[in-house]
Design brief:
Blueprint lengths: L2 H13 L2 H8 L3 H15 L4 E2 L6 E2 L1 H32 L1 E6 L1 H6 L1 H11 L4 E6 L15 E5 L9 E15 L3 H5 L13 E4 H9 L13 E4 L2 H9 L4 E5 L11 E5 L10 E8 L7 H12 L12
Parallel strand pairs: 3-4, 3-5, 7-8, 7-9
Antiparallel strand pairs: 1-2, 5-11, 6-9, 6-10, 6-11
Helix pairs in contact: 1-2, 1-3, 1-4, 2-3, 6-10
Amino acid sequence: MELDWLETFLAVVDRGGFTAAAIQVHRSQSRVSAHIAALEREIGVQLIERGRRPAVVTEAGRVFAVHAREILAGVRTARSAVAAMRALSDQHIVVQTTSWLGATLFPQVLADVLGTFPDARVTVVERGRGSSDGDGADVAVLAVNPADREPEPQARRQILWWEPLRVVVPDAHRLARSGEPVPLGRLADHRLVLCTASSRALDANPAGPGAPGADRGRLTVDAPQTVAAMVRSGLGVGVVNAGAVGLLNHSGLAVLEFESIDGTPDPGFEVAVDWFDVLLASPVGQALHEGVLAASMPSGALRRPR
């Protein structure tokens, strides 16, 4: 039984279908289907009812999902513990984050850490949380990500800030011409171009439509710079987080805020740092951890009480 099969199966369970799961695990929909079929053959029971739309998890699938999460959590915990011990001995620390956090949060943090420990080695891995190369060589012992998923078992977490979302449209777009904040419900009138985190934040927002832009289609990408390029090409209305706005090429684009309504949660998401305590036994790890906690928020981010 392959760990990839388990990760793909849980993505289908969590995202409610094969298409959304394919986006989450960065695989084709045919590969997702193949993983589920292989897993069902291995354990000899149907996990997903494919004849219904959306796909439905069977009772056996719900039971198996509990154990699949425990298996993956145990593997990740073991890999992280080994990686943390390696960090103690050779001053090599792997940090996992997103592309926009790698470009906004970490430059100054790493400049301070490497100024104090010039021989330290830090690898910043910019990829979706939970993805792995499979050999444990690049397991992160510190991660900074959107906090929309539970931390790994035995990991500690601290919320850093709140990332409000921003709308990105061409200068000539009617939303830009109005100059007004954008009501969340207006997104349903447009095809959306979204980063992964903004897509999840919109879907989770109780004030918005259940699936913003579902009738007009949706493009989901990893990098905010790609969102801007696609919006500039007329592919749709973009939504990115405020902290990533400074990374964009604004030529021909307008960046708008969402309309604020009393009692309605602002569209956005929390950013959190997760770490394992063994990391703090390393002087380099401790300096990196302290640097992340003390770092300035990206422009546009907000402090929010827990």
